[in-house]
Specification:
The structure is a single chain. The protein is of the alpha/beta class and 493 residues long. It has 13 helices and 21 strands. The chain has helices spanning 39-56, 61-77, 79-90, 94-114, 153-164, 178-194, 209-217, 230-242, 265-277, 297-309, 329-344, 395-403, 418-425, and strands spanning 26-27, 31-32, 122-123, 130-138, 141-145, 168-172, 202-205, 223-227, 247-250, 255-259, 287-293, 348-351, 366-369, 386-392, 407-408, 410-414, 434-437, 449-450, 453-454, 461-462, 471-479. The chain has a seven-stranded mixed sheet with strand order 2-1-7-6-5-8-9, with helices on both faces. A seven-stranded mixed sheet has the order 12-13-14-11-10-16-17, with helices on both faces. It has a three-stranded antiparallel sheet with strand order 3-4-21, with no helix packed on it. Helix 3 runs antiparallel to helix 6 (178-194), helix 7 (209-217) packs parallel to helix 8 and helix 9 packs across helix 10 (297-309). The longest helix is centred in the N-terminal third of the chain and has 21 residues, at 94-114. The protein is globular, with a radius of gyration of 24 Å.
Length: 493
């Protein structure tokens, strides 16, 4: 046991999160399971979560919001140690780990206000003495399957909104970030238990594909939110649809930045750098394609390569580090394979392209030029820091090239032309769920709906009216008169 991190003085802070040498991976009001959940653990947890929902659904929405507020405050108190754990287990730099926890806190704050605002309209009825209203109710049990790259924030987006809507939650995090899942659940569980509420309102089952498959096929799962690859997301969607269930999908992104000749390059260079290199290229909103107008192509490439050379690579815990390792050795292999394919398809590596000779899964942030817009590798989402820089001449062409990939998550243009901006935002512009102007493709705010179109899955999480996905709508007609007029003036006598 002495070799385990939690037993070493440098990592003693892990105990502040309630972590031990061995950590149970199942929570349903009590902790159990040995690491990964068994099918029996899953069955018991679903039953307890459904029972807990009966209690939670009876609590008024603003009171549910108060519980979510307390969860946000509890996260605030642990924000640095939890951010450290995200950095340790996922590999992102410390400030990004803390920022991810801050996202969950922010969504909790947002959800508190939302808990006093959700509801449907009173609609005009065509019949005298009748009221026509919309009633919104929770769906019941929301299954939440999250990915390794945002092991806290994505669960936060889903659970905070789902909870104020009156749902219970069952979380399966990525197997490679299980300690984050356990630590977050311990924080939530204490809030629920302190308020004498069933802990199973926010249940946890750590596990692999077998548990994910069980969730997708389980008719007791009233909504399944899945964040991950397009390939796995398609399998999940088919399993859920086969039972006529509801799913919320947040899948891949092959995101583009388009830079026109009138762009402010003082905005372009740091934006492209952050979007392509941040989180070592492992965000779903990472910029993977950079379209440059032919008149500024060489200048921007030179400036961007110079900026890449200044990126401080190192230990994610070092406050000076801007760029850490990839998450797994498999990711390193995918990176190398993609670089080789880019070369074979006619691309030139103008920066990076190699593995860094140091302990860990470090690769060089990479810039590739010279490929056509429709090269197969350009149309492939590689979850690594590879940026394909592509030339364009005409606005109409580059808007079409932005849209020609299968995914439709995030996109951005850099220009000062007001007409072009509104064409970009309009029906013949970007077909993505996130359409930006003069900012990067990544770093979305929680107040807007987050998600994308096409192979990105069509789901929306976090802000705006995303709460509607976690509820079911009933149209209700109430007759408070003594007559029985029929709609459309029908007489049935």
């Amino acid at each position: 046991m002495a070799t385990l991190l939690v037993s070493q003085e440098r990592y003693a802070w892990l105990r502040e999160l309630g972590l031990q040498e061995e950590n149970p991976g199942v929570y349903n009001g009590r902790w159990g399971g040995r690491g990964q959940a068994s099918v029996e653990d899953y069955e018991e947890t679903v039953k307890k979560a459904k029972e807990a929902w009966k209690v939670w659904a009876d609590i008024p929405a603003p009171k549910r919001g108060e519980i979510v507020r307390q969860i946000g405050d509890a996260l605030r108190q642990k924000i640095k140690v939890l951010g450290s754990l995200v950095s340790l287990e996922m590999g992102k730099i410390f400030v990004e780990g803390v920022g991810e926890v801050q996202e969950y806190v922010d969504v909790c704050d947002y959800a508190v206000g939302l808990s006093r605002m959700i509801g449907g309209p009173i609609l005009p009825s065509e019949r005298p003495g009748h009221a026509l209203i919309e009633q919104w109710n929770p769906v019941g049990l929301v299954g939440i399957i999250t990915a390794f790259n945002f092991p806290v924030a994505v669960y936060g987006w889903n659970s905070a909104i789902a909870m104020i809507c009156g749902n219970a939650c069952l979380w399966k995090g990525a197997p490679s970030t299980s300690l984050v899942s356990v630590a977050v659940t311990k924080i939530i569980a204490k809030v629920l238990e302190d308020n004498k509420l069933p802990g199973a309102i926010c249940s946890l089952v750590c596990g692999g594909a077998d548990i994910g498959t069980a969730m997708a096929r389980d008719e007791r799962m009233d909504l399944l939110s899945f964040t991950g690859s397009t390939k796995v997301g398609k399998e999940v969607a088919l399993m859920v649809q086969e039972r006529f269930g509801r799913s919320l999908l947040e899948l891949g992104g092959n995101n583009a930045i388009i830079v026109f000749e009138d762009a402010d390059l003082n905005l372009v260079i740091p934006s492209a750098l952050f979007a392509a290199v941040g989180t070592a290229g492992q965000r779903c909103t990472t910029a993977r394609r950079l379209f440059l107008h032919e008149s500024i192509h060489d200048e921007v490439v030179a400036k961007l390569a110079k900026a890449y050379a200044q990126v401080r690579i190192g230990d994610p815990w070092d406050p000076n580090t801007l760029y850490g390792p990839l998450h797994t050795k498999e990711a390193v292999k995918m990176f190398l394979d993609a670089v080789e394919q880019a070369k074979q398809q006619g691309g030139s590596v103008v920066y990076g392209g190699k593995v860094i000779n140091r302990p860990g899964n470090y690769v060089e942030p990479t810039i590739v030029t010279g490929l056509p817009h429709n090269a197969p590798i350009v149309h492939t989402e590689t979850f690594a820091p590879i940026l394909y820089v592509l030339k364009f001449k005409e606005e109409e062409d580059v808007f079409a090239w932005n849209n020609e990939v299968k995914q439709g998550l995030s996109s951005s243009i850099f220009t000062k032309d007001l007409g072009r901006i509104f064409r970009w935002l309009g029906p013949k512009g970007s077909d993505c769920g996130i359409v930006n102007v003069n900012i990067p493709t990544s770093g979305a705010e929680i107040g807007g709906a987050f998600g994308g179109e096409k192979h990105t899955g069509g789901g929306r999480e976090s802000g705006s009216d995303s709460w509607k996905l976690y509820m079911r709508r009933s149209t209700c007609t109430i007759n408070y008169s003594k007559d029985l007029p029929l709609a459309q003036g029908i007489k049935f006598q």
